[in-house]
């Protein structure tokens, strides 16, 4: 419920007779803001009842709760501001509030802990503001006192001096009081909650300490406080790290603070260059603090996949390398050299930077990173073209071939960025809607680049026509043109020049990248919506006619000569076939009937076995394109029955050829035939008749069992190959790693093609059974069951759990467990189902020796333990029990241990008799536990379950009653505290005294709910130094991290409780079913 400030202020600005009542209202205010429905009628006489829901005001969604949070924070600031002159110094209200918030911040209940931490941090911020005002008043009073004292004796006012001295004394006393309050909050709350188990609480602490350092830099901007921000830069949650970066950003934007940040920058910049980058303001503000090596580490972040980081790094790179320091002088120098643009040197520098970053060859990412800060440079296409086409002038070095290739690649990326106006793939969540201004800029840029490259592109193609890499990049430019300019600008002659150069490139190159780029360019220029379509179509048809005629003659010559064909005949067929195949991909060439000659080549190769593998691969691909284009014609028109029969005959004959090619000795031929078979079976499956196309039923093909077996055998032989064999086959290759990655990618594509046939029910499911046992993420329990059954059949029921076969199954289960991820809430139902299936499998069969012997599959419970990420049985427990029952005992204890730990962690918070009695009185009675234990005593006596007296199946976990931390009595002994301090190593105290403040240290260890100092409340009254040096409490060591207690508002804490209940239900039913009884 939203609260206006003045209603509560009327109660807080209390009279002398109502101190307790007003303070009680303030206490109830903080408690009710935590979501508690109860109230305190008398101070510290009633414990709290917390509502059942896991939500509380600070976490509830909706605009009203966001407003509640802002009002709550604002109220605390206004409260201190209204009371800053008298009430906060009365040693009553502030001491009580700080003690209350400190106690609540130590609560196991997240709502109390979160709300009180937020209130305490805002309270601290308000006190920092008061301390700053007091400091200003002290300085002013001191100056007035010095000025009055320096006057001549006759003019000096002694009464005024006494008043100023008295005022200075009062201000100093108030300053000491404020510092004591701030130290109490900092030591009692901040130093424990900044490493809380909950990310939101850690974020609140880091956000506020940034405010303190910026607001009162003289007191807080030092290494004693900066180290908390530095440690938290390694937080697991991005939300907390972001708060750290924002806090540092606000500091680095102020150059006056640089001297105080120097030690921190030198200490933590080594870490930052390995992780995320600070925002642009940090980069631009900390140039002087970063060495050249540090800057280079920042430069490489322009290739980051996270666009905000890359853009910030791009802005930093622009300011360091690509900004013009004296534009007028540079323009004058460019004109003297005969250049139209002064950006020539900057573009050369950009090319050098791109080439030097050898690990990052993604030009599109570099352009996108610099786009917002260096658009003027990146859109200077005239300068780029000038550097490529013209000879270097006096004073300029000629660009190398490698530099020219890099410049062309960067230029094409800038054209794409300007024409499409969105980041490259992998640099955004999708295309966003452009604003009117952005859309106008996009249109203007597209017109500008079109007008320029319509003229320049033919010249560039002419100069670099012999270089396949450069030509392939340059041929991407026309797809970004506004093709209407060819007609509206009367530039048809430049279109003819472009078509002439493209034809020359096609005749000169056989590389697939170049041919595909030419084919795509023709496809774009042939678009029917533009008036230039007829002109381009004529040029394209003439080109295809020439190559088809050349292909037909070369095929005849090759088939006539047979085995006597020389290399020239083979090259003529292969080169023309490559060109036609590349064009057939994007163009309908069925009227030239390429399928007939391709089929002849394939049949000849099958019958005589003398056809080169490259010709077979290209012939298969070209025939495939021909069939697809025929299918497109049929589906778009009204085909006759004869058309369907002709296509069916064509497809049938081609499928037979592909099936025969699966036994070819050449691996590329087999792989190509396999991929085409899978694609055609997918296309011509029963899916073809969907959408009202029942008339295409004659074209549906269903693979017979023989073809399915051949496809499966191919997958088993070429996909699931031994890694050692593959590594041996690649030994001695200079590009070993690249070849391994390429081979892995190829195998994945082969497996994906076959898997699609299984998914769409084209291949029978049982044909894929052999694949499932090789694949690690399909049907977890099915796979482990299958492997376990095979092992039982080989070794019998008495398995050797130390054997390599059992260890292999356990390792497989461990890898399966990693697929569930860290979010236990999302996987809760799946893991519970996994338990159920696993238990049913373990007790599925009865031991043939009798009921007193364990089931043969009982050992599977050990695998199930690993599969569900549960704890193992300790070695001591294993030594006390018979080996045959160890799987059951281990599985049972893996479930029970978590529940006992949860109960112990709840009850460990309070050991006083009063608190215990309250819990027992108010807690939920463990009826379920009594019922289950009683049932065991009556029905399972003498059964094999009770062979060991130590085995007891627990009931449901008792839900603890949550009580206020105000009632908890601190029973920790001073001796235990000293012993713990002596036993802990790697604490923050050791860090400060032994290694120095800013030496190498490990990342901070996050505390859980109850990780706090021993005797916080007693620390409130300690005397602190004026310098506010903090005496940090010891940190938990790494071994204690595994003992973090659960949070009662984290529903994942109930996960194992559900497992216990599920285990009891299923296990008891299986026992009675197995024993022939009815539950």
TrEMBL record:
<dbReference type="GO" id="GO:0000775">
    <property type="term" value="C:chromosome, centromeric region"/>
</dbReference>
<dbReference type="Pfam" id="PF08514">
    <property type="entry name" value="STAG"/>
</dbReference>
<keyword id="KW-0132">Cell division</keyword>
<keyword id="KW-0158">Chromosome</keyword>
<dbReference type="InterPro" id="IPR013721">
    <property type="entry name" value="STAG"/>
</dbReference>
<comment type="subunit">
    <text>Part of the cohesin complex which is composed of a heterodimer between a SMC1 protein (SMC1A or SMC1B) and SMC3, which are attached via their hinge domain, and RAD21 which link them at their heads, and one STAG protein.</text>
</comment>
<keyword id="KW-0159">Chromosome partition</keyword>
<feature type="domain" description="SCD">
    <location>
        <begin position="190"/>
        <end position="275"/>
    </location>
</feature>
<dbReference type="GO" id="GO:0051301">
    <property type="term" value="P:cell division"/>
</dbReference>
<dbReference type="Pfam" id="PF21581">
    <property type="entry name" value="SCD"/>
</dbReference>
<dbReference type="InterPro" id="IPR056396">
    <property type="entry name" value="HEAT_SCC3-SA"/>
</dbReference>
<comment type="function">
    <text>Component of cohesin complex, a complex required for the cohesion of sister chromatids after DNA replication. The cohesin complex apparently forms a large proteinaceous ring within which sister chromatids can be trapped. At anaphase, the complex is cleaved and dissociates from chromatin, allowing sister chromatids to segregate.</text>
</comment>
<dbReference type="GO" id="GO:0003682">
    <property type="term" value="F:chromatin binding"/>
</dbReference>
<dbReference type="GO" id="GO:0005634">
    <property type="term" value="C:nucleus"/>
</dbReference>
<feature type="region of interest" description="Disordered">
    <location>
        <begin position="899"/>
        <end position="928"/>
    </location>
</feature>
<dbReference type="InterPro" id="IPR039662">
    <property type="entry name" value="Cohesin_Scc3/SA"/>
</dbReference>
<keyword id="KW-0131">Cell cycle</keyword>
<dbReference type="GO" id="GO:0007059">
    <property type="term" value="P:chromosome segregation"/>
</dbReference>
<dbReference type="InterPro" id="IPR016024">
    <property type="entry name" value="ARM-type_fold"/>
</dbReference>
<dbReference type="InterPro" id="IPR020839">
    <property type="entry name" value="SCD"/>
</dbReference>
<keyword id="KW-0175">Coiled coil</keyword>
<feature type="coiled-coil region">
    <location>
        <begin position="154"/>
        <end position="184"/>
    </location>
</feature>
<feature type="compositionally biased region" description="Low complexity">
    <location>
        <begin position="905"/>
        <end position="917"/>
    </location>
</feature>
<dbReference type="GO" id="GO:0008278">
    <property type="term" value="C:cohesin complex"/>
</dbReference>
<protein>
    <recommendedName>
        <fullName>Cohesin subunit SA</fullName>
    </recommendedName>
</protein>
<dbReference type="Pfam" id="PF24571">
    <property type="entry name" value="HEAT_SCC3-SA"/>
</dbReference>
<keyword id="KW-0539">Nucleus</keyword>
<dbReference type="GO" id="GO:0007062">
    <property type="term" value="P:sister chromatid cohesion"/>
</dbReference>
<dbReference type="GO" id="GO:0000785">
    <property type="term" value="C:chromatin"/>
</dbReference>
<feature type="compositionally biased region" description="Basic residues">
    <location>
        <begin position="919"/>
        <end position="928"/>
    </location>
</feature>
<comment type="similarity">
    <text>Belongs to the SCC3 family.</text>
</comment>
């Amino acid at each position: 419920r939203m609260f206006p400030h003045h209603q509560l202020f009327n109660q807080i600005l209390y009279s002398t007779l109502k101190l307790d009542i007003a303070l009680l209202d303030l206490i109830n205010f903080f408690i009710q803001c935590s979501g508690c429905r109860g109230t305190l009628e008398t101070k510290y006489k009633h414990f709290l009842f917390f509502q059942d829901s896991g939500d509380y005001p600070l976490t509830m969604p909706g605009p009203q709760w966001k407003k509640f949070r802002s009002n709550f924070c604002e109220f605390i600031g206004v409260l201190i501001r209204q009371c800053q002159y008298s009430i906060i110094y009365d040693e009553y209200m502030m001491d009580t509030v700080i003690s209350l918030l400190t106690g609540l911040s130590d609560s196991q209940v997240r709502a109390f802990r979160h709300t009180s931490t937020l209130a305490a941090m805002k309270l601290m911020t308000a006190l920092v503001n008061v301390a700053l005002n007091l400091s200003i008043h002290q300085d002013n009073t001191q100056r007035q006192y010095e000025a009055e004292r320096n006057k001549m004796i006759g003019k000096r006012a002694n009464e005024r001096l006494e008043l100023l001295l008295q005022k200075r004394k009062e201000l100093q006393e108030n300053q000491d009081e404020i510092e004591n309050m701030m130290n109490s909050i900092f030591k009692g709350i901040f130093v424990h909650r900044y490493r809380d188990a909950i990310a939101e609480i850690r974020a609140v602490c880091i956000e506020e300490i940034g405010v303190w350092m910026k607001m009162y830099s003289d007191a807080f901007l030092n290494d004693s406080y900066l180290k908390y921000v530095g440690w938290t830069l390694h937080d697991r949650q991005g939300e907390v790290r972001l708060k750290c970066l924002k806090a540092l950003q606000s500091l680095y934007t102020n150059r006056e603070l640089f001297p105080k940040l120097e030690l921190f920058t030198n200490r933590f910049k080594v870490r930052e260059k390995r992780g995320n980058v600070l925002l642009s303001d940090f980069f631009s503000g900390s140039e002087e603090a970063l060495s050249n090596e540090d800057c280079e580490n920042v430069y490489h972040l322009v290739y980051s996949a996270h666009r905000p980081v890359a853009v910030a790094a791009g802005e930093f790179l622009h300011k360091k390398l690509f900004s013009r320091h004296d534009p007028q002088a540079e323009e004058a120098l460019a004109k003297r050299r005969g250049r139209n643009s002064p950006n020539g040197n900057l573009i050369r520098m950009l090319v050098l930077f791109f080439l030097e970053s050898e690990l990052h060859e993604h030009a599109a990412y570099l352009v996108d990173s610099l786009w917002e800060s260096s658009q003027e440079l990146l859109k200077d296409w005239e300068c780029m073209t000038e550097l490529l086409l013209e000879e270097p002038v006096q004073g300029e070095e000629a660009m190398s071939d490698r530099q020219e290739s890099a410049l062309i690649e960067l230029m094409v990326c800038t054209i794409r960025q300007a024409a499409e106006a969105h980041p490259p793939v992998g640099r955004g969540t999708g295309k966003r809607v452009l604003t009117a201004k952005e859309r106008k800029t996009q249109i203007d840029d597209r017109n500008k680049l079109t007008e320029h490259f319509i003229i320049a592109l033919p010249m560039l193609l002419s100069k670099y026509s012999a270089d396949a890499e450069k030509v392939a990049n340059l041929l991407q430019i026309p797809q970004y043109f506004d093709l209407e300019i060819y007609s509206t600008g009367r530039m048809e002659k430049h279109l003819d020049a472009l078509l002439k150069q493209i034809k020359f490139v096609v005749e000169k190159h056989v590389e697939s990248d170049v041919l595909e780029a030419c084919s795509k360019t023709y496809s774009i220029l042939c678009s029917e919506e533009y008036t230039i379509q007829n002109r381009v179509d004529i040029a394209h048809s003439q080109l295809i006619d020439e190559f088809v005629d050349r292909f037909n003659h070369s095929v005849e010559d090759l088939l006539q000569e047979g085995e006597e064909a020389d290399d020239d005949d083979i090259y003529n067929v292969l080169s023309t076939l490559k060109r036609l195949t590349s064009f057939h991909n994007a163009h309908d060439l069925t009227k030239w009937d390429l399928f007939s000659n391709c089929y002849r080549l394939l049949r000849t190769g099958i019958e005589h076995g003398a056809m080169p593998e490259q010709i077979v691969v290209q012939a298969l691909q070209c025939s495939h394109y021909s069939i697809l284009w025929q299918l497109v014609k049929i589906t778009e028109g009204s085909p006759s029955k004869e058309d369907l029969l002709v296509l069916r005959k064509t497809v049938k004959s081609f499928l037979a050829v592909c099936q025969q090619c699966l036994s070819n000795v050449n691996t590329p031929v087999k792989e190509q035939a396999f991929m085409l078979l899978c694609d055609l079976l997918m296309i011509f499956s029963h899916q073809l008749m969907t959408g009202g196309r029942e008339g295409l039923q004659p074209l549906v093909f269903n693979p017979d069992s023989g073809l399915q077996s051949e496809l499966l055998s191919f997958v088993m032989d070429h996909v699931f190959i031994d890694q050692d064999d593959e590594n041996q086959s690649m030994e001695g290759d200079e590009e070993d790693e690249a070849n391994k990655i390429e081979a892995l990618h190829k195998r994945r594509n082969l497996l994906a093609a076959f898997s699609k046939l299984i998914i769409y029910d084209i291949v029978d499911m049982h044909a894929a059974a052999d694949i499932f046992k090789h694949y690690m993420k399909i049907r977890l329990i099915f796979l482990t069951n299958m492997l376990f059954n095979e092992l039982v059949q080989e070794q019998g029921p008495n398995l050797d759990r130390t054997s390599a076969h059992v260890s292999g199954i356990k390792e497989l289960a461990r890898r399966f467990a990693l697929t569930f991820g860290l979010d236990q809430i999302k996987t809760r139902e799946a893991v519970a189902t996994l338990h159920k299936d696993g238990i049913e499998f373990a007790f599925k069969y009865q031991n043939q020796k009798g009921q007193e012997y364990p089931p043969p599959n009982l050992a599977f419970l050990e695998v199930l333990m690993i599969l569900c990420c549960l704890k193992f049985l300790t070695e001591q427990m294993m030594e006390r029990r018979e080996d045959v029952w160890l799987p059951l005992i281990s599985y049972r204890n893996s479930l029970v241990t978590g529940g006992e730990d949860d109960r112990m962690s709840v009850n460990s918070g309070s050991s006083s008799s009063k608190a215990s009695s309250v819990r027992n009185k108010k807690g939920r009675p463990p009826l379920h536990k009594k019922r289950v234990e009683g049932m065991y005593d009556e029905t399972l006596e003498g059964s094999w379950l009770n062979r060991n007296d130590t085995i007891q199946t627990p009931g449901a976990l008792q839900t603890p009653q949550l009580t206020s931390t105000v009632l908890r009595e601190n029973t920790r002994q001073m001796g235990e505290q000293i012993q713990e301090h002596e036993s802990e190593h790697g604490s923050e105290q050791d860090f400060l005294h032994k290694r120095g403040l800013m030496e190498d240290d490990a990342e901070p260890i996050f505390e859980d709910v109850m990780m706090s100092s021993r005797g916080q409340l007693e620390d409130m009254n300690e005397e602190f130094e004026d310098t506010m040096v903090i005496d940090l409490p010891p940190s938990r060591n790494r071994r204690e991290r595994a003992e973090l207690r659960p949070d009662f508002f984290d529903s994942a804490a109930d996960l194992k409780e559900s497992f216990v209940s599920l285990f009891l239900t299923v296990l008891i039913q299986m026992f009675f079913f197995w024993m022939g009884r009815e539950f």
